[in-house]
Amino acid sequence: MPRYRSSLLLPAAALALGGCAVLGNVTQLDDGYYRVVHRPAGDTLAALASNQPLYVQQRADTLLLTPDAPAGRPRTYRYALLPTQRLWLLRRRLDLDVFTIPFKVRPPQGGVPVQLNTNFNAALYVGRRLDFYSLRTKRTTPFGPTPHIRATGLGYGAFIGAGSTFITDDVTAAARPTAADYEGVVLHGGLAAIYDARAFNIGLAAGLDQLLGPDAEHWVYQHKPWFGVLFGLDLN
Predict the structure, then answer these.
(1) Residue 13: which residues within 8 A CB-CB, separation 6 or more?
(2) Beta-strand pair 87-106/225-234
(3) What is the dihedral of CA 134, 132, 70, 31, to 10 degrees?
(4) How far apart are CA 206 and CA 224, in angstroms?
(5) Of 153, 163, 156, whose CA–CA distance to 126 is shortest?
(6) Does the pLDDT at position 27 exceed 90?
(7) Cα(10)–Cα(210) distance, rounded to whole angstroms?
(8) What is the largest CA-CA distance in the chain?
(9) Where does residue 187 rank: exposed (0-12), middle (13-18), buried (19+ CB within 10 A)?
(10) pTM score, two decimals?
(11) CB of 109 within 8 A of CB of 208?
(12) Please, is 217 exposed, middle or buried when counting C-beta atoms within 10 Å of its C-beta (0-12, 13-18, 19+)?
């Protein structure tokens, strides 16, 4: 099988997709379909990786690259990782998370100034996950170079969930049906951008709240936007 070597750099635009990112090291690349992020002119991998996914398998410091061949027998190429050259790969997948929103920032509404709410909030998130991998070899042992893989995980999607908020006369109309102060139940939904910190996911969320109960139409934040920070666990 042909042997390919390449020097590939990830353009800054790829990292800017998620605004910011957390980098982490992984020991083994999962088998699956990937795309080469960038192909410089004259690169020996260009023809193979041109606008198509590759099935990638890692064998120590060598990658086995197999393009789809629907009309014939698949052909696998050996790609050697080198200490002075980086190979950047991109993997896309569906992402399913459960996360909490430890606080919400609510813009001014109905004469109430900016509020920072720290009530309980939880949500189910579904979105698109983008994983970038930088691969090369690195001399870390007396026995020679070993694979060195740096990963960056980004994501974007939508969420729905439930939480609580404190209902008082300050955030409702004067003629509200309920006179007592209480913890109200809210349903919320919106959009989120996350990045993978390896042990957990962290990111930003923007959404709307729907208060349940008789005070819903009197609540100044009903269907008004809020912004928050989220922490979550990757379910897949």
Answers:
(1) none
(2) antiparallel
(3) 70
(4) 10
(5) 156
(6) no
(7) 42
(8) 79
(9) middle
(10) 0.75
(11) no
(12) exposed
What single letter denotes the amino acid at residue 26? V
Assign residue 170 a region: left if phi > 0, alpha if psi is -120 to 50, beta otherwise?
alpha
For residue 95, what are the contacts with CB-CB under 8 A and spacing of at least 6? 125, 126, 127, 128, 129, 155, 157, 194, 234, 236
Amino acid identity for residue 114 in this structure = V
What is the residue type of 222?
Q
Nearest Cα to Cα of residue 21 among 134, 100, 97: 134
Question: Using one digit for the tens of pLDDT, what is the confidence trace for 128-139?
Answer: 999 999 888 887
* Domain boundaries of the chain, sorted by first residue: 22-236
Strand 32-36 and strand 115-117: the pairing is: unpaired
List, for residues 30-44, the tens digit of each pLDDT value.
Answer: 999 999 886 655 666
Tokens standing for residue 214: 């008789």
Token pair belonging to 183: 């913890």
